[in-house]
Design goal:
There is one protein chain. This protein has 284 residues and is mainly beta. It has a single domain, classed as Porin. The protein is 9% helix and 49% strand. It has 3 helices and 18 strands. β11 and β12 form a beta hairpin. The chain is globular. The two termini are 33 Å apart.
């Protein structure tokens, strides 16, 4: 049986590349992401000015530092498809997460034995995702778009363990071309007695710079990336068409920068992304 700590880690790290970003985020606590737009085709690739591709992301292997122990841990995620549609992925523990699709051809549900995320749409855009984590939390994210690009995510996180808490996250995004270049996260906690929202006075500002190569995350459904953005606000940057070269996180008087290097295949997709001793390998 998994420990509570293992379960919480899986909840927030089952979604690939957030490993690197969240590992360097300063001041992560209950007042923020405390565990921690482009019109894409639902079947991978891009239909928003990018070039549609038959290439598929098949596997990711991560080598990341555990923030609790300081140890380097290795994990893997294997993706399965039915034709062009992503239908599931399996992690190195053997757990499978599945994807259901609605009549609109877009993801309607993502689920495994421990949690389920249900998607709602307004027109062709995701408007709301509700994630229920059995016995632990309910996370409700609502999405705003401008000119087919994600402009804001508002998330209410309601946890029952390790102690009852209701948190608020609001992240807005700025773009340059097809890349997210800035995100601003405002966070707060609801007072358990009065119910009033008490905001953290220090917002989290993140700036991003990129290479000119192709992002492997553009091969995954946009709805899946939006789920990630709802659970961890930094995840919205994975809507970008290119790969991170530098991420700078500033909150209050704290500032931290992280640089990345990449190895590429013949199609200009990364096969390995490295930051310090940590890395992610991609197989197609």
């Amino acid at each position: 049986m998994q420990t509570e700590n293992q379960t919480m880690k899986k909840i927030f790290f089952y979604i690939f590349g957030l490993f690197i970003i969240t590992s360097c985020s300063p001041s992560q606590d209950v007042n923020g992401d405390f565990l921690l737009g482009l019109d894409y085709s639902s079947e991978g690739g891009s239909s928003g000015g990018g070039q549609t591709t038959s290439k598929q992301l098949k596997r990711m292997e991560t080598n990341m530092k555990d923030e609790d122990t300081g140890d380097i841990e290795n994990h893997s995620y294997t993706y399965s498809y039915s034709g062009a549609k992503l239908i599931s992925y399996k992690d190195d523990s053997g757990e499978t997460t599945k994807f259901d699709y609605g009549s609109n051809g877009k993801i309607s549900k993502v689920y495994n034995a421990e949690q389920v995320s249900v998607f709602e749409y307004t027109g062709s855009n995701v408007s709301k995702v509700t994630t229920t984590i059995t016995g632990i939390a309910k996370i409700t994210s609502t999405y705003t778009f401008s000119s087919a690009k994600l402009s804001k995510v508002v998330t209410i996180q309601e946890y029952s363990v390790p102690f009852p808490v209701k948190a608020y996250l609001e992240t807005s995004y700025q773009y340059q071309g097809e890349n997210v270049t800035k995100s601003l996260t405002k966070a707060g906690v609801y007072n358990p007695v009065t119910g009033d929202l008490e905001m953290d006075p220090e917002d989290k500002n993140i700036t991003y710079t990129y290479d000119a190569k192709k992002s492997p995350y553009k091969l995954l459904p946009m709805e899946y990336i939006l789920l990630i953005a709802g659970i961890g606000p930094q995840g919205g940057a994975y809507l970008s068409s290119n790969n991170f070269e530098k991420i700078t996180i500033a909150q209050g008087t704290s500032s931290e920068a992280m640089t990345f290097s990449h190895d590429y295949d013949q199609d200009n997709y990364p096969t390995k992304s490295t930051s310090g001793q940590e890395y992610i390998k991609y197989s197609y």
